[in-house]
Amino acid sequence: MSTRPVLVCCLTITAFLVTNAHAWPGKSSAFQPSAQEARLVQLMGDRLEVSRKVAWAKYLDTLPIYDPKREKESLASITQSAAHYGLPASTVTSFFKAQMNASKQYQTHLLRKWKRGAQPFPALPFLNLKSQLRPEIDRINQEMLKTLTELKNTPATSQHQAAFAAYARSVLRTQRYSWRIADTSIAPLRYLSPTHSY
Known about the structure:
- This protein is an all-alpha fold.
- The chain has helices at 4-19, 35-61, 68-85, 89-116, 129-151, 158-174, 179-186.
- Helix 2 crosses helix 4 and helix 3 packs parallel to helix 5.
- It is globular and about 45 Å long.
- Mean pLDDT is 84; it is low at 5-28 and 193-198.
């Protein structure tokens, strides 16, 4: 039996895959983020890392994950700062609510595993929630606002924003955050362009 038809078929499929590699959804390897885009994603990861320390502090002090008073005050402060930077309150609120929701998901995930003994305790010193960790989160929030300000005048198509979101998801997944947490965090990135909500 001749192997020529099989070989031709394989070569045809290979050529198709190479030619259309850019069209496959979820591929962000070809996406080249701007310095501001890369910085924003880095800050998103930094914020989640602080959330791990927050979860540990709450575990040690048996505090609840959700603190509605703190969240309301934090959002109010962020919205006030957004006006200073000339950012729309609705866009900023959407972005930071997503970061807070991702943080709560991550903290809940960690506390459940620690309580079940399904994950080793972290090698972290005790850090005070009010005097050490919350100021660190506030600092990251301000850095995020500055970066969003730098991004707001960057023209971008919806395809670019989708690629940016896919890039951010890939980075967060590389940092070993779950699909759910990563998707929660990156959801607003598709709408940061002036084309959409600015």
